[in-house]
Write the structure tokens for this entry.
Amino acid sequence: MDPSEDRCECCGRSGVETTIHHLTPKEYGGVKLPTALLCIPCHRHIHHLFTNKQLIDLELTTISALQLNPAMQSFIRWIRKTPPGTIPKSRKSRNVRRRR
Ligand SMILES: [Zn+2]
Ligand SMILES: [Zn+2]
């Protein structure tokens, strides 16, 4: 088994490849603050839905806050049904694209 395979703290799926997410974006002082291990689809979805500034403004700096966000909830409900290893096509929301 691939040693990088782990459990996603956001959707709770196991056997997925995880990446480190800075719960407080690094540019907002999150370098030494808690991180979370997220599967690639969850991680990418968070950054497609929200800009780093919005993560701060909306206080989405904990896993539970992210899980309670309505946009993330519908995503989590959906991703839980997909097998590990599926990398869904995801597009940046207009909101994020506009600000970059
Ligand atoms: Zn996940
Ligand atoms: Zn991240």
About this structure: The radius of gyration is 13 Å. The chain has a mean pLDDT of 90. The chain is about 40% helix and 15% strand.
